[in-house]
Amino acid sequence: MTAAPGRPGVLPSVSGGQRHIDRIVASGDRMVAIGRLTPRQVEFVDVFTLFEEGMLRSCRRYDARRRLSAH
Can you give the pTM of this predicted structure? Predict the structure, then answer.
């Protein structure tokens, strides 16, 4: 699976597969879900940001096989 155009490391949206969550980590207004998409067995990391009211503010899915450099 290739990255979304212009967004290195960000996976394009996928339909028709199942998401299997292996771990969830949360702190403050951020939550991270780590898992894999089947049937392709692509590992992913979803990063969610929430508003103070608990509503979803943003979500981004990364390919867990790529290492992203921190800037």
Answer: 0.66
